[in-house]
Design a protein that fits this description.
Number of strands: 35
Structural class: alpha/beta
CATH architecture of one domain: 3-Layer(aba) Sandwich
CATH superfamily of one domain: Glycoside hydrolase family 3 C-terminal domain
CATH topology of one domain: Rossmann fold
Largest sheet: 6 strands, mixed
Shape: globular
Number of helices: 19
Distance between the termini: 36 Å
Radius of gyration: 27 Å
Strand order of the largest sheet: 9-24-23-22-10-11
C-alpha cells in the first residue's frame, strides 16, 4: 500500500468539465489566448480576469529543482527500470508528486521514455531502457503514482530521440513498423494506460520534420488514434516556426512564445492560414488539465509536507536498493565478510562526494546526500575503512578560471576571433583579447553583432610552462564542436564527432618554452559552453600513488568510478569507456589487490574489456540518488540482497550494438536512418548470435532461484481474451532475496520477419530462504501482435511460445500456444 494518499480533487474529463471550459473561454480575448499558448519561462501565464492562475512547471525526473533550493534527489530512471518493480515505480512517481505538492508545482516535466539505442547517448540515464514493454509498464505506474498526488506528469521526448549530438538538427529516419513496435509503445502506454496529463515533443526531427510540428506523430497518432486530450508542449526552445507548429498539434511553446504569439499568428488567423478553432482547442486543453486536477479550486502547495521530506527520501533509498545490478561476484567475495576483511580500501572519485545523478536539466540539488564512502563507513562495524580519491576529475573547475595564456605579441591573455558562421572560416566579425577560455554563452551575452544561432570562435596564443614534465590539458564543451592544436598537432578533435570529445589529454612540455595554441569552437544550438585550461601533472596526480599504496595494504578494495555529471549528461553523447585516467587508476588498483570490487556510476553500459577479468566483483549502481551511498553499502555488506536486472543489453564492444552502423551521422547529411529496424537490443543478439558481455535481464543475487510448474490460464482462448501465465519460484539458497521472472513471447511462424522473442511481461517476487511463491503475469492480445505497414496492428493465427526466464538468455520454462482465427480455440501445451 502506498504511503501517500490519492489526490481527492481530480475530476475526469466530462461534459461538466467542458461546460466550465466554455465559461472560462468566454472571458478570454483572442490576444489572451495567444498569450496562453506561449510559456512564462517556468510555467504558463495567468489571466486573472478569467480566473486562470499561473500553472507552475518543474523539471525532473531525478527530483524537483525549480521553485526551491533543494529537494529529494532520486536515482536515475534507468535504475528504476532495472528494478523491474511495478509497485516501486508507482511509489517513485507518487514521491516526486508529493515533492511537487510541497513546492506548489502543478506539472512535472517527466518521465522520459526514449529507447536506449546505444550506450553513447548522454541522456540514457533519464530513460527506462531498451525494451518497449519494460518502459511501457514502468512508466504507466510512475505516472499513476505522480498524478494520484494531483500533479500532472509530462511524458517526453516525443519521439525517436536517442542521441544528444546535434539534437536540434538531426533527423531520425524510421519506417512505420519500427516506429510503432519499438519507439512509440511506451508513449502510448503513458497516454492510454497511465493517463499522462501532458506530453513534451523532442528536439530532433523524425523523417525530416521537426517533432514540435510533426502532424503524423501529434495529430494522426497521439491526438487521433490514441485520443490524447492533454497538453502537447515543446521542449525548451524547440519550436521552429509559428504556422507549422500551430496547425500540426503543438499546444504550448516553451519556455516562452517566441513563435506562438500574437505578432506571428494574428496575421495567419486573419488570412485563414490558421483557424481560430485551432487556437481554441489548445486553450481548451490547458484549461481541461487545470480543471481536472482541481488547480482552479485549491492551493497547489501543501504546507503540511516538509521540504526536507523523510518519506520521499525513504522511497529514493528503496529505488536505489532495488535498481543496483550485481554483474560479477567471483569467489563469492560479496557480501563482504567482516570476519575475514579487517581493512577495506574505498578508492575512486565517485566514492566521495556523492555522485547522485548525471548532468543537464535533470540535475537536482539534494537536501542531503550519502556518499559511498560514508555509507560504507557507517556499516563497516569494526572493519577499518580507509579512503583515497586517487585523482579529482572535478579539479578542472579550478583550472579553467586560472589557466595562463600569452598572446603572440607577449601580452597576458589570448587572442579571440568571433565568426558569424559555425565553421570559423572567412574573415572574423570581431577580434579582441580574452583573459581566459571560460565561456558560458547561454548564461551571458555574446559580443554585439554576433549571431547567437550561428557563430564560431577561434583563440590563438601561447602557453609557457614553468616546470618540465607531463602536462594535462582539459576542455569542457556543451552543444558545440571543438578542436585544439598544440604546435599544430591536434590535441582534441571533436569537430565532426558524434560523441563528446575526451575531456583531458596529455603532452610532455619543457619549462620556459613557448608552445603555440589554437582552440576552435563551433556553435550548435543549445547551451553553448566552451572552457579550456592546462596544468602540470603534479596537481592532477597528487593522490594517485596514495590510492595504489592503500590498495596494496588492504584486504579488499571497493573502487567507485565510471561517469559523473561532468562526463555524461544532456547536450552531448559520451564515450563508451570510462575516462582514460580513471580506467588506468582502476587497472593499477586491481593489480595491487586481487580482491577488488568495482561500483559503477553510469547511465548504461561501460567498456569493461581491459579490466573486467582483473576484478572480483562489479556492482552497477547507475546514478543512485541522494541515498545511493547507503543502498550500495547495504548491498556490499549483505544487509540488502541485490535484485536489479539489466534494462539494456551490455555488449562487449560498441561494434556489437545494432545501432553501431546507424547511430552517427557519418555522411553529415543531418539524417540517421535506423537501418537496424526492430532488431535492436536483445533482439539483435538473438538474430545475429553475437555474445553480449551481459544479456538483457541479467543480474546476480546472493541466493539462487528455481522455476517450477508453469501454467497457462486456459486451454482455449478467443481473440481479445486475456491470458494469465504463472509459475512457482523457489528460493533454493540460504538468504532472502527477490527474483524477476521475465516472460518472452515467440511467434513460431509469421509472414513477416519477427524477433526470436520479445519481452511481454514480468513479475518480481520476494522470498525468504527456502520459500516459494507464485509469479503471475497477465497477457492481452498486444502480446501477440505486430505492426503491418499496410494493415496496421495484426495478429496472425499460429503457434506461439511463451518463455519464462531469468534473463533474455536464461530461459527456464516454456509453453506453446496455438492461436487460431477469431472465435476459435487455442490449444496449450505445457513443457
Amino acid at each position: 500500500m502506498s504511503m501517500f494518499c490519492k489526490h481527492v480533487h481530480f475530476t475526469p474529463p466530462s461534459p461538466a468539465v467542458e461546460q466550465r471550459i466554455d465559461q472560462l473561454m468566454a472571458r478570454l480575448s483572442l490576444e489572451d489566448k495567444l498569450d496562453l499558448i506561449g510559456g512564462a519561462t517556468e510555467g504558463t501565464h495567468a489571466k486573472p480576469q478569467a480566473g486562470i492562475p499561473p500553472i507552475r512547471f518543474a523539471d525532473g525526473p531525478l527530483g524537483v529543482h525549480w521553485w526551491c533550493k533543494s529537494s529529494t534527489a532520486y536515482p536515475a530512471l534507468i535504475g528504476l527500470a532495472a528494478s523491474f518493480d511495478h509497485a516501486l515505480a508507482y511509489r517513485a512517481g507518487a514521491a516526486i508528486g508529493r515533492d511537487c505538492r510541497a513546492r506548489g508545482v502543478h506539472v512535472i516535466l517527466a518521465p522520459g521514455v526514449n529507447i536506449y539505442r546505444s550506450p553513447l547517448c548522454g541522456r540514457n540515464f533519464e530513460y527506462l531502457g531498451e525494451d518497449p514493454c519494460l518502459a511501457a509498464q514502468m512508466v504507466t505506474q510512475w505516472i499513476r503514482g505522480c498524478q494520484d498526488q494531483g500533479v500532472a506528469a509530462t511524458v517526453k521526448h516525443f519521439a525517436v530521440n536517442f542521441q544528444e549530438y546535434e539534437r536540434h538538427a538531426i533527423s531520425s529516419d524510421v519506417d512505420e513498423r519500427t516506429l510503432r513496435e519499438i519507439y512509440l509503445p511506451a508513449f502510448e502506454a503513458a497516454v492510454r494506460d497511465g493517463g499522462a496529463g501532458a506530453l513534451m515533443t523532442a528536439y530532433n526531427l523524425v523523417n525530416g520534420e521537426h517533432c514540435s510540428q510533426h502532424a503524423h506523430l501529434i495529430v494522426d497518432i497521439l491526438k487521433g488514434e490514441w485520443g490524447f486530450d492533454g497538453v502537447v508542449m515543446s521542449d525548451w526552445a524547440s519550436t521552429y516556426e509559428a504556422i507549422g507548429a500551430a496547425n500540426n498539434g503543438l499546444d504550448l511553446e516553451m519556455p516562452t512564445g517566441t513563435w506562438m504569439n500574437a505578432e506571428k499568428l494574428l496575421p495567419a488567423l486573419k488570412d485563414g492560414r490558421v483557424r481560430v478553432a485551432t487556437i481554441d482547442d489548445k486553450i481548451r486543453r490547458v484549461l481541461r488539465l487545470a480543471i481536472c486536477f482541481g488547480w482552479l479550486d485549491h492551493e497547489q502547495k501543501d504546507a503540511q509536507i516538509p521540504l526536507q521530506d523523510g518519506q520521499t527520501a525513504a522511497v529514493a533509498l528503496d529505488v536505489a536498493r532495488g535498481g543496483c545490478v550485481l554483474l560479477r561476484n567471483e569467489d563469492a567475495l560479496l557480501p563482504l565478510n567482516r570476519a575475514r576483511i579487517k581493512k577495506l580500501a574505498v578508492i575512486g572519485p565517485a566514492a566521495h562526494p556523492a555522485v547522485i545523478g548525471a548532468g543537464g536539466s535533470s540535475a537536482t540539488t539534494p537536501w542531503r546526500a550519502v556518499s559511498m564512502r560514508d555509507g560504507i563507513a557507517a556499516l563497516a562495524g569494526d572493519m577499518l575503512v580507509d579512503y583515497a580519491e586517487g585523482f579529482n576529475p572535478y579539479r578542472t573547475e579550478e583550472v579553467f578560471p586560472v589557466a595562463q595564456f600569452t598572446t603572440t605579441a607577449g601580452a597576458p591573455g589570448i587572442t579571440v576571433e568571433y565568426f558569424n558562421n559555425r565553421d570559423a572560416t572567412g574573415a572574423p566579425a570581431l577580434t579582441s583579447v580574452d583573459e581566459r577560455i571560460d565561456k558560458r554563452w547561454q548564461n551571458g551575452p555574446l559580443p554585439e553583432g554576433i549571431d547567437r544561432n550561428a557563430f564560431s570562435v577561434r583563440w590563438t596564443g601561447l602557453i609557457m610552462p614553468a616546470k618540465s614534465g607531463r602536462h594535462f590539458f582539459h576542455q569542457s564543451t556543451s552543444d558545440g564542436r571543438v578542436r585544439v592544436w598544440l604546435d599544430e598537432i591536434l590535441l582534441f578533435d571533436g569537430w565532426d564527432s558524434m560523441e563528446r570529445v575526451a575531456s583531458s589529454a596529455t603532452r610532455e612540455l619543457e619549462a620556459g618554452r613557448a608552445y603555440r595554441l589554437r582552440v576552435e569552437y563551433g556553435q550548435l544550438r543549445g547551451w553553448n559552453v566552451m572552457r579550456f585550461g592546462w596544468e602540470h601533472e603534479d596537481a592532477v596526480l597528487a593522490n594517485w600513488h596514495t590510492a595504489v599504496d592503500l590498495a596494496r595494504t588492504a584486504d579488499a578494495v571497493v573502487f567507485c568510478g565510471g561517469f559523473t555529471a561532468r562526463s555524461e549528461g544532456e547536450g552531448y553523447d559520451r564515450a563508451f569507456g570510462m575516462p582514460a585516467l580513471l580506467e588506468q587508476l582502476l587497472l593499477e588498483v586491481a593489480a595491487a589487490n586481487a580482491n577488488t570490487v568495482v561500483v559503477l556510476t553510469a547511465g548504461g553500459n561501460v567498456d569493461m574489456r581491459r579490466w573486467l577479468d582483473k576484478v572480483k566483483g562489479v556492482l552497477h549502481a547507475w546514478y543512485p540518488g541522494q541515498e545511493g551511498g547507503q543502498a550500495v553499502a547495504e548491498i556490499l555488506f549483505g544487509a540488502v540482497n541485490p535484485s536489479g536486472k539489466l534494462p539494456a543489453t551490455f555488449e562487449k564492444q560498441i561494434e556489437d550494438r545494432s545501432s553501431f552502423a546507424c547511430y552517427h551521422d557519418d555522411d553529415k547529411d543531418k539524417h540517421v536512418a535506423l537501418t537496424d529496424g526492430i532488431f535492436c537490443g536483445y533482439r539483435h543478439v538473438d538474430k545475429t548470435g553475437v555474445t553480449p558481455q551481459f544479456p538483457f535481464g541479467f543480474g546476480l543475487s546472493y541466493t539462487t532461484f528455481a522455476y517450477e510448474n508453469m501454467r497457462v490460464s486456459a486451454k482455449t482462448i478467443r481473440a481479445g481474451q486475456p491470458l494469465t501465465v504463472t509459475c512457482e519460484v523457489v528460493n533454493t539458497g540460504t538468504c532472502a532475496g527477490a527474483e524477476i521472472v521475465q516472460l518472452y513471447v515467440r511467434d513460431v511462424r509469421c509472414t513477416v520477419p519477427r524477433p526470436v522473442k520479445e519481452l511481454k511481461g514480468f513479475a518480481k517476487v520476494h522470498l525468504d530462504a527456502g520459500a516459494r511463491a507464485t509469479a503471475v503475469i497477465d497477457l492481452d492480445e498486444r502480446a501477440f501482435r505486430f505492426y503491418h505497414p499496410a494493415q496496421g496492428w495484426t495478429v496472425e493465427p499460429g503457434a506461439f511460445e511463451l518463455l519464462l526466464g531469468a534473463s533474455a538468455q536464461d530461459i527456464r520454462l516454456c509453453a506453446r500456444v496455438t492461436l487460431k482465427a477469431a472465435a476459435c480455440s487455442a490449444a496449450v501445451q505445457n513443457s
